[in-house]
Known about the structure:
This protein is of the alpha/beta class. It has helices at residues 13-24, 57-63, 84-105, 140-159, 181-190, 207-220, 237-247, 259-276, 284-290, 300-306, 313-331; strands at residues 4-8, 28-33, 48-51, 69-72, 110-114, 163-168, 170-172, 204-206, 226-229. Helix 3 runs parallel beside helix 4 (140-159) and helix 5 crosses helix 11. It is globular and about 60 Å long.
Amino acid sequence: MTKINLVTGANGHLGNNLVRALLARGEQVRASVRNPQNHTPFEGLDCEIVQADLMDKDSLLRALEGVDTLYQVAAVFKHWARAPQKEIIEPNLMGTRNVLEAAASQGVERIVYVSSEVTLDDRVLPVTESTWRTEFHNNPYVQSKTESEQLAWRLADELGLDMVSVLPGAIIGPHCFKLTPTMDYLRQALNGEVFVDVNFPFTFVDARDVAAGMIAAAKKGRRGERYLLVTEEPVSTRQIIAIVQEIDPKIKMPPRLPKLLLQIMSSAMGFASKITGKQPLLLRSQVELFYGVAARKDISKARRELGFDPRGPETSLREAFDYLIDRAEHAL
């Protein structure tokens, strides 16, 4: 009997690359989305599309019927909201509970749960899967990803689920139909719209490499283990702009501002956002979390156990820029 793989959030950046990777292996894929009327991400793909919402447990039970492997990708990915508890933290926690309880009810054999590198303590170097972040600096996304994965592990234990988790870095690359905050930052860099170097080192990883690592985790990952799916060395803003300058020499290198000045600026922006209801360009929590934190990642466990072998960050960046250029040209 053919085994069925369910990918939640299948129209998102990582989810769509995962669907494509599974299909390329000849596997049967059920793609769950909240809005099944949006067919663009699935054009030319031979997969079953079903409606499911992490906030609607009945829809998850229907989507998971007959499923052998669940790839839990869907989540709220944003760092700011007018009501962060209601719009980011609670949906990610409740979505985790709903989908895992539904998976247990339907007898799913294997779960690959997508977490994030932001759940790890980047003060212990090199960063490994063995740590947990304890300070969130009032960033609702980072808090929600950490607490959601911790909830997932408690539920996996209570419900007897065979689960592994994967922790990607800043995901870039093709098949990004609605630009994520990460990909939109690269778009801004490409268009010469990055005017300040905020000194946030990024651990970039190509979505296709993460998808390959997830499939390997489903096949070979050890039950109860976490796997870092990133590249080892972080990339600075200046390195990003330097690559852009190879494409367009007219792009200028933005000045790097000191942390104190960014703290003051982001605090003022945060105050204004409470009045306007619009997301600030820079969050104080992001400055506190990421400024100058060039933490090297140890991915030896994923290399050894999963055969994870990501392309280098500069290669990933160049290919992501190529994709964005092609995307913009076809939008004209």
